Recover the amino acids of this structure.
């Protein structure tokens, strides 16, 4: 008896569709996904009690059978499908036969499936005990793609690669008595002013540094009337500020100035560290509630004030400066990852590994480790790290995880499957 056989259009791994019928094998990580739209016709039951279509994956030696699809010509033949393991949800009577039945199943991937075929086995029970396999039809084939790993380096957040640092210093800028006009050549002013500008120049010259602020703070000594010292401190600080501003083309407001009329804190530190026999009495005056002029008058009449006047007060008339700047934080994971990417691009994988060895275990570092492992064709490590990066929320890592996980199972098929 001549049979009417099922003819399918085939969807190969290149994803070529033919109308609405398809058959394909797709590798997704550790899983082989099987999809097929199978067209059913009543002609398949012509002269047969039952007709069964069983999809299977095979390389000729190994076989994985999928859920069979059964058809029966009359209700009394339905039990015959039990022998084939047909689930009732995939058993169809001739009178209710659907046009198309979809197969959508997944099975664990094994390395023998590289090169395996998706087949459709046609089996039937006919009249008078006639039964058997009518045909085994190949409808698709799976071949592992040999694709060179192409890295996609991520851009790190520059702000997360920075830290704030400060440089502080002190300059003794001298002015004539009661004067607020700055003379760069007066006494040792040239060298003292150079302390400030040299520090700023040092930060400016640093490739990774970005100046955030420069604060000039001037102080007068607690000697003489407070109101006079207040005027002198403000005027002298402004003079140094103007000098520094004139040296640089910084944005407005980046350089700031502050003035302290009398440096009582410096005086207290000097007395506290001294060996004066009346040190406690002096500190009581300094820490007391008297106004500044009354404190100064009381100290003038105490023993050891002469030493204070010559050894301490001249050095309290100072200008301090604080330079705040952002610079590369070489301990930050983002910095280590960025440096590792730079080494990968140069082909120095050993140096890249050194940077990543001390980076954190966050998603960015795991993605970079996966990228490095992929470049080195260490597919097991690449799979592990990309999976962790995917779980950490990096979408690009999820696609790479699915891709590189295939390489673990590849046969030794030449240069592109190392």
């Amino acid at each position: 008896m001549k049979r009417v056989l099922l003819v399918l259009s085939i969807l190969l791994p290149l994803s070529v569709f033919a109308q609405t019928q398809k058959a394909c094998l797709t590798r997704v990580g550790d899983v082989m996904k099987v999809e097929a739209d199978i067209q059913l016709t009543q002609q398949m039951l012509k002269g047969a009690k039952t007709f069964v279509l069983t999809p299977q994956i095979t390389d000729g030696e190994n076989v994985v059978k999928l859920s069979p699809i059964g058809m029966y010509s009359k209700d009394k033949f339905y039990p015959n499908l039990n022998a084939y393991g047909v689930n009732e949800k995939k058993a169809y009577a001739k009178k209710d036969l659907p046009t198309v039945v979809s197969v959508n199943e997944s099975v664990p991937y094994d390395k023998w499936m590289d090169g395996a075929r998706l087949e459709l086995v046609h089996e039937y029970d006919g009249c008078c005990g006639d039964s058997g396999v009518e045909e085994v039809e190949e409808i698709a084939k799976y071949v592992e793609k040999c694709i060179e790993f192409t890295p996609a380096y991520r851009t790190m957040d520059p702000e997360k690669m920075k830290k704030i640092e400060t440089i502080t210093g002190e300059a003794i800028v001298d002015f004539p008595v009661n004067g607020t006009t700055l003379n760069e050549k007066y006494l040792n002013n040239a060298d003292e002013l150079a302390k400030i500008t040299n520090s700023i120049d040092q930060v400016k010259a640093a490739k990774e540094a970005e100046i955030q602020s420069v604060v000039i703070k001037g102080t007068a000594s607690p000697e003489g009337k407070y109101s006079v010292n207040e005027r002198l401190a403000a005027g002298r600080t402004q003079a140094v500020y103007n000098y520094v501003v004139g040296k640089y083309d910084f944005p407005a407001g980046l350089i700031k100035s502050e003035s302290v009329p009398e440096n009582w804190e410096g005086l207290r530190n000097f007395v506290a560290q001294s060996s004066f026999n009346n040190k406690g009495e002096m500190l009581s005056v300094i820490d007391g509630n008297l106004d500044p002029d009354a404190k100064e008058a009381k100290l003038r009449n105490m023993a050891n004030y002469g030493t204070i006047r010559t050894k301490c007060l001249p050095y309290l008339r100072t200008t301090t400066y604080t330079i705040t700047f952002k610079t590369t934080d070489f301990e930050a994971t983002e910095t280590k990852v960025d440096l590792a990417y730079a080494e990968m691009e140069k082909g120095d994988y050993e140096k890249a590994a050194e940077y990543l060895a001390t980076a954190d275990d966050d998603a960015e570092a795991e993605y970079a480790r996966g990228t490095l492992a992929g470049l080195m064709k260490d597919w097991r490590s690449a799979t592990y790290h990309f999976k962790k990066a995917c779980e950490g929320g990096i979408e690009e890592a999820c696609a790479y995880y699915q891709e590189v996980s295939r390489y673990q199972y590849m046969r030794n098929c030449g240069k592109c499957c190392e």
In short: The two ends are 52 Å apart (CA to CA). The longest helix spans residues 226-247. The longest strand covers residues 48-58.
